[in-house]
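== Sequence and structure of one protein ==
=== Format: two labelled lines per protein ===
==== Data for this protein ====
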Amino acid sequence: ANRKGTSDMRILVVEEERRLAEALGQIISSYLPEIISGERPIDDFDRMVEEWYAAGGQEVVDEMNAIFVK
């Protein structure tokens, strides 16, 4: 079923996410494995999230909210 504001959920690609995917993915890849393995403290998760938002993650969240929160 389609949600208001989307044409087809199967092909929904957020433009900002596609543009930023590589940079945002790199931030996550640089933190998560080391947090999971214990090489980094769990507190670094918050730092990762802050960097993710600062690198464009907020744009992704804003676009998703524009699509789904009405």
In short: The two ends are 17 Å apart (CA to CA). The CA atoms of residues 53 and 67 lie 19 Å apart. The longest helix spans residues 44-68. DSSP finds two helices and no strands in the chain.
